[in-house]
Design brief:
The protein is mainly α and 248 residues long. Helix content is 61%, strand content 4%. It has one domain.
Length: 248
């Protein structure tokens, strides 16, 4: 984690601000959802899609800008030097929204679900995709900036405090993400509240949450020594510690 108190405060404030961007993007998606006509999906999709892509891109740009300001302030706090920010944006937003919206509705109907139920049921996944694409502006900006920063050893994943097992596993690794070899750190799912923090010191100290995630991963790996990652994640979920753990 950050070596200075100011750095830690900046990371926390940035995380909350990015989560806020995602929440506002999802709220806007809810308003725009009714532009998709269940009785004319093909005919209503172009206008619906254009409206949503425009809204998501606006939030994505806001996420980028916020990350840029954070990176500069954070680097100043940690090493006393300004950052050279590299803005980056996600690709494929139109396809991602179309697939999680009208295409998903059609698939649910084809699977036997009623049209009204499919229309309502598809929104949850769609809202998650809107959140993801909006927040990826900031996430990718941090990743690309750190990749170009010779003083940075990498970046660590910062969870929202109540992660799923997958996000906890990635966060447990610490600041190992910097280049293409660690690209799995950029795997953010819909409704994910994770952000990222640059690391400038080789003396990385895990947070209490990261220690807890690492212990859960180690326990799961020990319980499933010859299994693949999917089995280890299942074991982590069974611990009951994560957002996607089974609830009794």
């Amino acid at each position: 984690m950050a070596s200075t108190a100011e750095g830690r405060e900046l990371t926390e404030a940035h995380k909350l601000a990015q989560i806020g961007i995602g929440a506002r993007a999802a709220a806007e998606a809810s308003i725009l959802w009714n532009r998709l006509d269940i009785n004319d999906l093909d005919g209503s999709t172009p206008y619906w899609l254009a409206s949503n892509v425009r809204a998501v891109n606006q939030r994505m740009a806001q996420s980028q800008s916020m990350a840029g300001a954070y990176l500069n302030d954070y680097r100043q706090a940690e090493i006393g030097l300004a950052a050279t920010v590299v803005l980056a944006a996600p690709t494929g937003t139109p396809d991602a929204l179309r697939l999680s919206g009208p295409v998903r509705i059609k698939r649910l109907i084809a699977g036997g679900m009623g049209a009204a139920e499919a229309y309502d049921g598809a929104f949850t996944k769609f809202a998650g995709m809107v959140r993801r694409q909006s927040m990826m502006g900031g996430r990718l900006t941090i990743a690309r900036t750190v990749q170009r920063d010779r003083r940075a050893i990498g970046w660590r994943r910062v969870t929202d405090g109540n992660p799923c097992a997958f996000c906890a596993m990635l966060a447990s690794r610490g600041p190992v993400y910097k280049d293409a070899a660690a690209a799995d750190g950029l795997m953010y799912h819909g409704h994910c509240g994770c952000t990222a923090e640059p690391e400038y010191s080789n003396a990385w100290t895990p947070t209490a949450d990261e220690e807890r995630y690492l212990q859960a991963y180690t326990d799961a790996r020990y319980a499933e020594p010859n299994r693949d990652t999917s089995e280890v994640l299942k074991a982590m979920r069974r611990s009951g510690l994560f957002r996607d753990s089974p609830r009794t």
